[in-house]
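hiii so um. not sure if this is the right channel but i have a protein structure encoded as tokens and i wanna go backwards to a sequence. like what aa goes where. can anyone help
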């Protein structure tokens, strides 16, 4: 076998030696030949012993063309020594030794053959892209390697090779030189117009000033189509052949884009990120990079992983620029400013960090693993996302309460779809309506076939009707104006689902769409919020809304397949009505019945009901007769904590009791006086329990005798001490018993007429003589004339001045010259002789 002398061949000896001992990491730049040469170099190694090589490629286009290139080097057709398996397509035979597979295919292969007995080597190509499936496949391979000798080879151009080598057990890192030429890089600056408009203008300039074919990178199909239209108006087709290159193209169209034009015209390839790596495209001398790409991101609105437009990373930008230098010196024009380049991420974060992990958790459960921590990861999946995924899978019936896979879970895992959609497809097959479910899965999974507008209804049936009209008439109905290309795409996916389910297309009853969607989105079953139009409560517990004029708002129950937007109530973009009867008939397991005794916030009372619900949605509620008194009491406690202790009927005496105890806590911290502040009383409401018997509402609380309740909390001995150390009243010289006013802080206040203190030399004290009271000495009219805690000093220093003022204002009252020897006065107007 004569292979072309590509740079990776120079390190073949090191690579073979490393793999003879175990696993390895190959760091090789674009153009080195790692994708197409390495598998062929290793095919006849003794340790392989005639077994297969599986090579994982992240993209279908790269997988197919890598297999085609290797087969051509062997002088064979694809499907002989070298074959491939991608989603819905395969070319292999019993002779096949090298299989190039895409990510989901490799996982399926391992699940069906956990030991991979006929495989000697698994190659992970372009591992730097760090897709969720690649990380999962590597974790499963590492698990297999604990049982038998399975070689692993991880290859990448831009990867932290040391970390990967450590994960493989300190595997050797082999570095290959690249075969690339210098690339001149220019920056065009930022653009304010649409991407396709800026790209068309840039391509016109590059085509006029540079030679060779041009590769332009755009985010997705929509921008490619728009740029192609704009270029057609700028440059005649006879001078320049403009071709799209993206994953949605038919195989023949993709092949045409990768081959030189038979008429010798210059080509402009408008490509997505599928052209970043693995493929060497003959004739490319110029690259124009928009700086944007679409990456898979978990979309909470649909519950699925969707593509999202994001800025490229520095590593991706370098990969793109390198395409211009594969076969000779090249040029790259970047449609952003040089300063902006420094702010780009070095690498895109691995998908496992932010992805929906339901597929991963299901695959692990099928593998026999309930805890992701049991596996070895380059970046462990976040625990919170794993718990959320497991919760959804239990909701779908795919996992039991212990996290183990169920029979239904195995059926779901057998389909190459998100568990939500797979569950709907499996359930629909059993119910004899797989055709409708296949259409629904395709409509939900793909982009909307109707142009999105503010007044467009969210009803799924509109899309299904448009699809049926397109099938019947070859175009969308006038009233829906469906996108014909979108209909073709949805129809193709739908037919593939039917093929995998092993059923034929049957007549569809579109009225059952909402019922079927409930199998995929049980957590998105929604009920209208009372009489509030367009507002719904989802079973998951959050609110959502329809557009104001959406006629779907007439439905009491919906299943929301897609929600999005900001705010506390996101908008429902895709949904269909479902009846309560349908839910009871086909989703009975979602209904939960439970007796509940709880505090009702709105009514401020305890309610005892038997509730039937779907998640957070209450379907029916009936009042319970004779509910347990202990549960009523606990609900009252809950209500009281929410209302706050201020809701209790505190009287002045009960508040003073709390203040008296608080004073003793400050003065006698070692005596065990209890805390009676609001926080402490609310923390343990058991003290109030005996007094709440028969009570159920906030109004009932007003019947409480708080003084008695507090005394019960203190007990007899503590009350006796309290009366002795911090009495509620003091006996003054006049014989009056005057109430003390205790404060939250500071000394208690004794407000007493000055005349009733005649003959008293010292300030009264409490708490065993340690605390002076604060005297508010009052006039006969009960107005303060002096505040003091030094009564002796008052008589000696201030009394004479106070006497002058009071004698003038109250001449009929007795104001002695020597108050310490005077007869004490009790009452207001009693006359006394000098």
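sure thing!! here u go:
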């Amino acid at each position: 076998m004569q292979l072309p002398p590509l740079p990776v061949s120079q390190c073949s000896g090191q690579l073979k030696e490393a793999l003879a001992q175990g696993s390895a990491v190959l760091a090789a730049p674009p153009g080195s030949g790692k994708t197409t040469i390495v598998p062929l170099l290793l095919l006849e190694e003794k340790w392989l012993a005639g077994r297969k090589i599986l090579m994982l490629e992240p993209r279908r286009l790269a997988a197919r063309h890598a297999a085609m290139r290797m087969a051509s080097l062997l002088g064979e057709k694809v499907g002989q020594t070298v074959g491939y398996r991608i989603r819905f397509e395969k070319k292999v035979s019993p002779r096949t030794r090298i299989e190039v597979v895409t990510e989901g295919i490799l996982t399926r292969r391992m699940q069906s053959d956990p030991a991979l007995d006929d495989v000697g080597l698994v190659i992970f190509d372009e591992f730097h892209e760090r897709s969720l499936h690649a990380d999962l496949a590597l974790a499963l391979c590492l698990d297999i390697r604990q049982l038998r000798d399975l070689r692993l080879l991880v290859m990448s151009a831009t990867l932290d090779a040391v970390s990967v080598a450590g994960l493989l057990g300190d595997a050797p890192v082999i570095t290959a030189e690249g075969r690339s030429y210098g690339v001149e890089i220019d920056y065009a600056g930022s653009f304010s117009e649409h991407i396709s408009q800026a790209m068309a203008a840039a391509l016109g300039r590059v085509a006029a000033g540079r030679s060779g074919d041009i590769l332009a990178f755009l985010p997705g199909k929509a921008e490619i189509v728009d740029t192609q239209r704009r270029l057609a108006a700028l440059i005649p087709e006879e001078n320049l052949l403009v071709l799209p290159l993206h994953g949605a193209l038919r195989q023949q169209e993709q092949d045409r884009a990768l081959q030189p034009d038979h008429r010798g015209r210059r080509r402009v390839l408008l490509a997505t990120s599928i052209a970043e790596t693995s493929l060497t495209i003959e004739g490319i001398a110029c690259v124009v990079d928009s700086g944007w790409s679409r990456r898979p991101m978990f979309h909470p609105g649909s519950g699925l992983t969707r593509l999202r437009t994001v800025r490229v990373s520095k590593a991706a930008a370098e990969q793109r620029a390198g395409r211009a230098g594969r076969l000779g010196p090249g040029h790259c024009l970047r449609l952003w400013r040089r300063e902006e380049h420094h702010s780009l991420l070095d690498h895109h974060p691995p998908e496992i960090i932010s992805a929906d992990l339901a597929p991963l958790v299901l695959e692990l459960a099928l593998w026999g693993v309930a805890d992701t921590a049991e596996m070895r990861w380059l970046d462990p999946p976040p625990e919170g996302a794993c718990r959320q995924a497991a919760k959804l899978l239990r909701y779908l019936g795919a996992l039991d309460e212990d996290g183990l896979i169920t029979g239904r879970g195995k059926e779901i895992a057998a389909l190459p779809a998100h568990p939500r959609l797979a569950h709907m497809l499996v359930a629909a097959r059993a119910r004899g309506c797989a055709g409708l479910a296949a259409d629904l899965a395709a409509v939900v999974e793909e982009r909307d076939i109707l142009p999105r507008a503010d007044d467009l209804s969210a009803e799924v049936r509109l899309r299904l009707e448009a699809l049926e009209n397109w099938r019947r008439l070859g175009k969308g109905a006038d009233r829906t104006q469906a996108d014909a290309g979108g209909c073709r795409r949805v129809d193709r996916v739908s037919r593939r689902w039917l093929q995998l389910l092993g059923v034929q297309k049957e007549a569809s009853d579109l009225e059952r769409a909402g019922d079927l969607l409930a199998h995929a989105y049980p957590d998105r079953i929604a009920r209208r919020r009372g009489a509030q139009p367009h507002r719904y409560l989802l079973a998951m517990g959050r609110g959502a809304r329809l557009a104001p004029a959406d006629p779907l708002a007439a439905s009491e129950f919906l299943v929301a397949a897609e929600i999005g937007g900001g705010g506390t109530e996101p908008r429902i973009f895709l949904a269909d009505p479902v009846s309560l009867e349908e839910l009871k008939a086909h989703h009975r397991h979602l209904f939960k019945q439970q007796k509940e005794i709880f505090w009702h916030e709105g009514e401020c009372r305890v309610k005892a009901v038997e509730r039937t619900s779907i998640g957070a949605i209450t379907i029916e509620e009936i009042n319970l007769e004779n509910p347990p008194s202990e549960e009523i009491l606990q609900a009252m406690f809950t209500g009281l904590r929410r209302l706050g202790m201020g809701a209790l009927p505190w009287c002045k005496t009960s508040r003073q009791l709390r203040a008296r105890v608080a004073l003793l806590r400050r003065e006698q911290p070692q005596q065990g006086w209890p805390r009676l502040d609001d926080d402490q009383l609310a923390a343990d409401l058991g003290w109030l329990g005996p007094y709440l018997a028969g009570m159920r509402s906030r109004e009932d609380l007003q019947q409480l005798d708080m003084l008695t309740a507090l005394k019960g909390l203190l007990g007899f001995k503590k009350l006796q001490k309290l009366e002795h150390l911090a009495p509620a009243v003091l006996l003054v010289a006049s014989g009056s018993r005057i109430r003390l006013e205790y404060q939250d802080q500071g000394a208690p206040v004794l407000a007493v007429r000055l005349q009733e203190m005649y003959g008293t030399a010292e300030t009264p004290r409490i708490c065993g003589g340690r605390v002076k009271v604060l005297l508010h000495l009052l006039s006969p009219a009960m107005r303060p004339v002096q505040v003091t805690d030094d009564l002796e000093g008052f008589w000696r220093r201030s009394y004479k001045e106070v006497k002058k003022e009071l004698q003038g204002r109250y001449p009929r009252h007795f104001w002695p010259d020597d108050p310490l020897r005077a007869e004490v006065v009790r009452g207001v107007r009693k006359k006394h002789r000098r």
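oh and Residues 248 and 833 are 116 Å apart (CA to CA).
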